[in-house]
Structures are given as structure tokens and as C-alpha cells.
Amino acid sequence: MAGPTRVGARMAWRTGRLVAIVDETPTARTLVLDVPGWPGHLAGQRVDIRLTAEDGYRASRAYSLAAPADGDRVEVTVQRVPDGEVSPYLVEVFAVGDPVELRGPIGGWFVWDPAGPPDPVLLVAGGSGVVPLMAMIRARRAAASRVPFRLVYSVRGPEQAYYAAELRRRLPADGGLDVAYVYTRTAPEGWPGPPRRITAADLGAAGWPADLAPLCFVCGPTGFVESVADLLVAGGHDPSRIRTERFGPTDR
Known about the structure:
Elements: H1 7-11, E1 14-25, E2 28-34, E3 46-52, E4 58-64, E5 73-79, H2 87-92, E6 99-106, E7 121-126, H3 130-142, E8 149-155, H4 164-168, E9 177-183, H5 200-206, E10 215-221, H6 222-234, E11 242-247
Parallel strand pairs: 7-8, 7-10, 8-9, 10-11
Antiparallel strand pairs: 1-2, 1-6, 2-5, 3-4, 3-6
Keywords: 2Fe-2S, Iron, Iron-sulfur, Metal-binding
Domain FAD-binding FR-type: 11-112
Pfam family, one: NAD_binding_1
């Protein structure tokens, strides 16, 4: 697992090259990049990706890293935003072999390190907010960690769920990982109950009791994150043990 890196190394723009694409949903894909000289990162950190037009105009956006450190390999999952400046290119045009500029890693609070305390971990995701949480799940697996993880994933419908096949698989290294879904618009056939927003009952049934003092990571749209954080505090969780990452209506 990568440790802290110098600010200069993290904030220098590097040129990466796309080596693979994984389609996650009809409007989101994971981009696998080779970035020579990548300084490493922790699960939960993010990167800036910058595009430069032929006329010199530049646009950059921040994206969460989707996988733990693996040499010069970097993975991000990008959701196409209609009328966006960056995401439509990355999802619809960017092809294997193409270069792109990026810098990072960025952020140091919303991270999970397998070398840290063995406290149970609760992950609560809203939509594409599952990306940095999936990096934590994958980091746990790569380290063969036995820290108990629970993921509560709120998503509009099953077709919008990222990493669905991977989360369905139960590998030997996943012992202690539990996954629960909350569907807000459309639910799979035979699902018990109608679609709805996440509730305190969901967090109570699929999460950890507050008296176990789990470390909680909540990521998603601003309204979702604020609602879940309030529910966790109302349920007795220590606010200092709740870490949040949110995004608004920008081109993500």
C-alpha cells in the first residue's frame, strides 16, 4: 500500500495512456490507465484529469480512484454527464492507446488503509459515490485483510449499479464483506418492497451497531450524504467516526 507522497510529486501533471476499458453501465465506464512515475495512492483518494482542445482550451475534473495502488496502473470510473466538458469525451470518445493528463493523488482524510486499526467499516454509497468505496473494498481484498466490511448501496435501479458482477462474487478473500442494496426508482423483479430512499431502518439492518464504533464512509450527491450522515448520528454513531465525500451537479 502506498504511503504519503510529496506535494510536488502529487500535483505534477503526468501523461497517462488508456490501456483498457470496462463498461459499468450504459453511461459509465472504468478507464484503466498506465501512468509512468505514478507516486502511489490510498483507497479513497482522487485525481484530476485534464483535457486540452486543439485551440489550447483546457478543462479538468476530479474523479475518484476506483482501485488500490498497483505500480503505474490507475483506474477511474467516469459517469457521462449530459452537456459536460470532460465526461462525454472520456466515456464516448477516449480510446485505448490515447493519452490524457492527470495529477494526484488528492485527498488524505476520506481514505482507508489496510495497515490501520482493525475497526469494522461501514460504506454507504449513493449512485456513482460507490467508486472510492469500491477502491476500499478492493484494497481490503488485495491486502487479504480480515477487517469486517459492510456496504449499503443506494442506486436508482439495478441497471445503474456499478461493479454489479464483482460485488455478486464471493471470493475467499471477501470473508467478512456484506453488501445490501436500496433501490430508489426501479427494483428487480421479486424485490421485497417498493423502491424508496434509504432509511434509518436500512442502515440499522445492513450496517453496524453504533456501540461497535465502526468507521463510516459515506459518498454520493450532497443531499444523500447529508441525509445519511444525519441518520447515522441520530442512530448513535460518533460524528468523528463518519467521513463524507460529496459531489454536486458538476461534470463528473
